[in-house]
Write a structure and sequence with these properties.
The chain is of the alpha/beta class. The protein contains 7 helices and 13 strands. S-adenosylmethionine binds next to loops.
Length: 254
């Protein structure tokens, strides 16, 4: 099954055991991948489900539902202050491959970029392609860019649940390492529901002291990603790698 091509299909395209393919998808399957009638591919809805499908002209027949187990055991939200240039494209691509659930682009006090509306569409397309490539069951949600303060208020209500953890990465100082914080929190199969981990990463110029203060008030713990200063594009990828490694090497207790 691994060799079959995966494509994301909108839920509205599924009708009575058939997939109504868009012109773009027909072109991609027929002209780019050179698939013909009777050839198979994997259709994913980006919401956790995969199906084995068979091409039949401008439609495809669903043959069977498939089981996918490529998601992390926790939901990870990244709040990322937009870096300069096209740096955010790389953040979206790599963090999708690493298993992020939600990416919230934020405009902080020292953010230099003012994103155009076309950027959001581009980031969502990159997330979809990266999810297909990395065999994710879910396509991560990319939220509209908002001010850091607005983003903080929208996640404050999470802080009351024991299953949720919130971290703000600060490049200097004596904050504990993210890995140690995750490790100390542990995770047990007795925990109710899926854990949510929220991680905030600053821009090239770093967070202002006021921003860190507001995040702490909102329940975020300042953490380090190590002794070196990472670029604004590298830091989210490193943070996600640490979380994924910690979650996937967990020995669950019963
Ligand atoms: N100009 C800032 C300074 O000198 O402190 C560095 C900013 S860094 C390029 C961009 C962001 O990446 C930081 O705001 C932080 O969120 C994250 N970051 C980079 N290196 C880090 C580290 N070693 N530990 C924690 N966060 C880090």
């Amino acid at each position: 099954m691994a060799q079959l091509q995966r494509i994301a299909i909108a839920p509205s395209q599924f009708q009575q055991g058939q997939i109504l393919l868009t012109q773009e998808q027909q072109h991609y399957l027929g002209r780019v991948l050179r698939l013909g009638a009777g050839d198979r591919f994997i259709a994913m809805d980006g919401l956790g489900k995969w199906w084995l499908a068979q091409l039949e002209g401008d439609q495809a027949q669903i043959l069977e539902a498939l089981v996918v187990q490529t998601e992390l055991s926790a939901s990870i939200t990244l709040m990322v202050a937009l870096p300069k240039g096209n740096g955010f494209d790389e953040v979206v691509r790599c963090c999708t491959e690493l298993g992020v659930s939600v990416i919230a682009p934020v405009v902080s006090d020292r953010t230099l970029l003012n994103p155009s509306p076309q950027k959001l569409e581009r980031w969502r397309r990159i997330a979809q392609e990266a999810a297909e490539q990395s065999e994710r069951a879910f396509v991560p949600e990319i939220l509209e860019p908002v001010a850091f303060g607005t983003s903080l208020s929208s996640v404050v209500h999470y802080s009351s649940s024991v299953n949720n953890q919130q971290y703000i990465c600060v490049a200097r100082g004596n904050s504990p390492h993210l890995r140690n914080c995750l490790h100390n929190k542990g995770y047990s199969t007795n925990d109710q529901g899926k854990r949510t981990i929220i991680i905030a990463i600053g821009p090239e110029g770093g967070w202002t002291p006021k921003e860190v203060e507001c995040a702490v008030e909102a329940g975020f713990q300042p953490v380090s990603l190590g002794r070196r200063i990472l670029r604004a594009v590298t830091a989210p990828i490193v943070a996600l790698s640490i979380v994924a490694a910690e979650l996937e090497s967990l020995k669950t207790t019963t």
